[in-house]
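Pipeline run #58 for the internal structure catalog. This entry was flagged by the ingest filter as a single-chain record with no existing model, so it goes straight to prediction. Upstream metadata was stripped on purpose; only the residue string is passed forward. Reviewer on rotation: M.T. Logging verbosity set to normal.
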Amino acid sequence: MRLHLCAVGRLRAGPERVLVDDYLARADRTGRALGLGPVTEHEVEDKRGGGMAAEADLLGRTLPAGAAVVVLDERGKTLSSPELATQLAQWRDTGRQDAAFVIGGADGIDPGLRARADLAISFGRMVWPHMLVRVMLAEQLYRATTILSGSPYHRV
């Protein structure tokens, strides 16, 4: 199952870019044997200032047909790392070809896009900068692959 990280905004060179690249490379290496990956990043920018609706349209164009869509939203479910790994494995094992993780812009995710998601998850009740959310998501995708592979990276 291919994984997609779809985000509003461009992640430029810097520590966040280094971390995202590192975790996604690790996820690709570990996930390949599990039928997970590669992870592809899709970055969009609303240069016309159309707000959440315009961002949702741009993000929607990055979503593969039939993909399991996961939005990162402060109102979403707070999953444990093993629960996320289990969900990915379930989608993979039931024939889903793609899973897309969506990070919205500064105002969040358009309600229409949120409504079409298969799952909404939250990294807690605090609000995080979008670039850190991307790092945290990349790490959780790597962690999910290590959990499913039986690696000792994830300790309970």
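catalog note: The chain has a mean pLDDT of 93.
catalog note: The radius of gyration is 15 Å.
status: ready for reviewer M.T.
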